[in-house]
Amino acid sequence: MIGLIIWLIFGAIVGWIAGVIMKDQRGILGNIIVGIIGSLIGGWISTMTVGGTFAEFSLPGVIFSIIGAVILIFLKQLVMGQRH
User: Fold this and answer.
1) Tell me: the pLDDT tens digits for 14-53?
2) Distance (Å, whole) CA 52 – CA 77
């Protein structure tokens, strides 16, 4: 149960940071979804670029999660035609 709460909080923070970077704000639920999916994308990117993932909490893991969330928001804006 604690692990789930930590994932939700982490997802919310990562999603919020990515939203600030991309100027694409949404509510808490949207931030959680973007943050968690962005973390998965970031994990895939880290595997492809540095040859590993970050199973434990670390600064590189947070950075890759934010990068993944920014990419997700960019793709959403591209598809939805909201890119300025």
Assistant:
1) 999 999 999 998 899 999 999 999 999 998 998 888 876 6
2) 29
